[in-house]
Design a protein that fits this description.
With 652 residues, this protein is α/β, with parallel strands linked by helices. The chain is 35% helix and 19% strand. It folds into 2 domains: 21-51 and 95-357 and 397-407, TIM Barrel (Alpha-Beta Barrel); 426-649, Rossmann fold, CATH 3.40.50. α4 runs parallel beside α14 (378-391) and α13 (360-371) crosses α14.
Length: 652
């Protein structure tokens, strides 16, 4: 009898295992995410930020970047009807089968979908019957389509509630939070709608094995204890855990299969007060931006996994340079942690898979919003916005193969931009001095540029004079790098060719340090056009004994500033001063704080820009004052800036 009982039990266990194997649902096992065959699966994913929920910075908007504020400003420019038409086209074009195909070919095995609740159900204020839920078809149909594309590519789709009813955080852009209305945490009706939405989604997708899991709430950031407003310091976080339990209960009424992914307070990372595991298919998500890629930085999450024996997932990371990307992926994968990068697309950014090109008329809209410039006409604004909706199609975007290779060096294939031929390396012409005070900097720059070129896909040719610079020779290069090379003593033909190169936008330009030594030097008169190009400045003085200084970023939204802290220290520079600040003629990206000089110096100029770009010429261009000595290549902020500048100016 005992033998028969054991055989029956063994048979039942075998049948149970076979069912799991056949269904293929991802699940948690032994603190790992495993597939239907119980094999560990490292998720390598991409977040579709900006599709269902726009965040202003992805479009180049510097302030008031919540989606509801963006919609209001668009309607103000082109009217409500055309605003609605723009958003219809945006949803139609931004993410299509072509996007999923290129991600699959690049080696990604998953997609994270940031959802805005208002594509699935009405806000509580608009419900015809209070307490009931009106379901909208748009969000469900978009998700159905995305799931079909993922299925076709054997990719997992993770649903992420990025904007919950009412908004879940004080960082308003992330969840489209409107402080004039009750938040998720201030309204029981919003919480009940959130629970109902997750139940509706789970009911719809309960049997879909290519749904990887349910990320219940993106980056809650709210204090319940009167501490840091974004909840980084809260010690209990009880309302978050209570809501997660209620959502899980509703999901499990209709779906026993899928992973439940939770995030802590404080943008996902504060797990203080975690009450213990309430579902065996639970995954802890954390988000990581800008911090060093060391085991110490993720030690708290590793301890959480060890204590509760549930898997970890890096639900969001990105917005940095490719070297940082490589290091982060290596760190988490070494520790059996999958990841989802952020985001797939942005306007004029090189830190994502696809770059949306910014139409000229949309630039006028941004200038009006960001700088208080001239209000564009209705026709200009409409043309710019509808061109933007067209530009966001995958076939019209630039494919950043270097980002993909940084994340997945051995991807399944090397895809080209959708609809294009394979991308090849680009060429950089570097003007470099062979004598003088800056040769040590150049000597350190060359191996760094070689390594950067291998990683980012470019080759550098070095020239120590301008004898061979002609329009024909410059045409071979996508970027001119003025690597500590003075703006005087050039051959007349080279001056004319370079001026044409910049004024006709034939390539990009990055200038360092010595490039603004503008004046009468070594028997040469000042080059008037170059002075105008640099913001109508003339060199005045410098600090010969060097001093350290703190650089403050002014425009963190500019692609060249991505991955940089708000301020960073330059330990040793000679800090040129000019006869005037270039600010009135250029777009300043960063300044040096002269009060931070150590040791102090009397050689100051007040408003002291040190990084800027001239938007009045077609060529992408950036001047970076720092560049005197080799020690700069030990400064992560400088190398991040330099790498960003090269890729942005080369339109990569």
């Amino acid at each position: 009898m005992k033998t028969r009982y054991c055989l029956v039990l063994l048979l039942l266990l075998t049948l149970g295992y076979s069912q799991a194997e056949q269904t293929g649902f991802l699940h948690a096992s032994n603190a790992r995410i495993v597939d239907g065959q119980a094999g560990e699966l490292i998720l390598r994913g991409m977040g579709l930020g900006g599709w269902m929920l726009q965040e202003g910075y992805m479009l180049g908007i510097r302030s008031n970047g919540t989606q509801h504020a963006i919609k209001t400003r668009i309607a103000d420019l082109i009217g409500k009807a055309d605003c609605d038409k723009f958003y219809q086209l945006w949803l139609q074009n931004h993410t299509t089968r072509a996007d999923v195909d290129v991600l699959a070919k690049s080696g990604f095995n998953s997609v994270r979908l940031p959802m805005h609740y208002n594509l699935f159900t009405l806000p509580i204020q608009d419900e015809p019957v209070q307490g009931e839920n009106t379901w909208l078809t748009t969000g469900f149909e978009l998700t159905d389509n995305l799931l079909a594309w993922c299925k076709a590519n054997h990719m997992y789709l993770i649903l992420d509630l990025h904007a919950a009813p009412g908004g879940q955080g004080k960082d308003a852009n992330i969840s489209d939070y409107d402080p004039a209305k009750p938040s998720l945490w201030e309204s029981e009706a919003n919480r009940q709608k959130t629970i109902a939405l997750w139940r509706k989604l789970a009911e719809r997708y309960a049997n879909e094995q290519w749904i990887g899991g349910y990320d219940l709430l993106n980056e809650p950031n709210w204090t319940f204890e009167g501490k840091d407003k974004n909840g980084k310091e809260d010690s209990l976080n009880q309302p978050i855990w209570n809501l997660y339990k209620a959502i899980t209960k509703a999901i499990r009424e209709v779906d026993k299969n899928h992973l439940i992914i939770v995030e802590g307070n404080g943008w996902g990372n504060n797990y203080n007060g975690f009450p213990g595991v309430w579902d065996q298919n639970l995954v802890f998500s954390f988000h990581k931006y800008w911090s060093p890629n060391t085991r110490e930085q993720i030690a708290g999450f590793l301890a959480l996994r060890a204590e509760y024996h549930q898997p970890l997932w890096l639900g969001e990371s990105g917005e940095n340079d490719n070297q940082w990307f490589r290091e982060c992926v290596s760190l988490v994968e070494t520790n059996h942690i999958g990841w989802a990068w952020w985001p797939h697309k942005k306007v004029e950014s090189t830190s994502c898979t696809l770059t949306i090109k910014r139409p000229d008329d949309f630039r006028k809209v941004l200038d009006y919003w960001n700088k208080g410039g001239e209000r564009p006409t209705r026709d200009t604004a409409a043309r710019g916005l509808f061109q933007l909706a067209e530009s966001c199609k995958a076939s019209n975007c630039r494919f950043n193969s270097n980002v993909v290779h940084a994340l997945i060096p051995s991807g399944s294939s090397t895809p080209s931009r959708p609809g294009s031929a394979s991308l090849s390396k680009f060429k950089v012409l570097a003007l470099a001095e062979t004598s003088g005070h800056h040769v040590a900097f150049t000597a350190a720059a060359k191996p760094w540029l070689t390594k950067c070129g291998e990683e980012e896909g470019f080759d550098v040719d070095y020239f120590s004079d301008t004898t061979t610079l002609t329009e024909a020779s410059l045409a071979r290069y996508q970027l001119v790098l003025q690597l500590d090379f003075v703006p005087y003593g050039w051959k007349p033909e080279a001056m004319a060719a370079f001026k044409t190169y910049i004024q006709q936008g034939r390539g990009g330009w990055v200038g360092l340090h010595h490039a603004t030594l503008l004046g009468n030097f070594d028997g040469y008169a000042i080059w008037p056009w170059f002075s105008e190009f640099m913001g109508q400045v003339k060199f005045k003085n410098y600090i010969p004994d060097f001093t350290s200084g703190t650089v403050h970023v002014e425009d963190a939204s500019h692609p060249c500033m991505k991955g940089l802290p708000e301020s960073f220290l330059i330990s040793k520079e000679e800090w040129y001063t000019y006869d005037q600040s270039p600010r009135a003629y250029v777009h300043v990206l960063a300044t040096v704080d002269e009060s931070s000089y150590s040791p102090d110096s009397n050689i100051k100029m007040g408003d002291h820009p040190v990084i800027w770009t001239n938007p009045h010429v077609p060529a992408r261009n950036i001047y970076i004052f720092m560049g005197h000595g080799p020690w700069l290549f030990e400064n992560q902020a400088f190398t991040t800036l330099f790498r960003n500048a090269i890729l942005w100016a080369a339109a990569k």
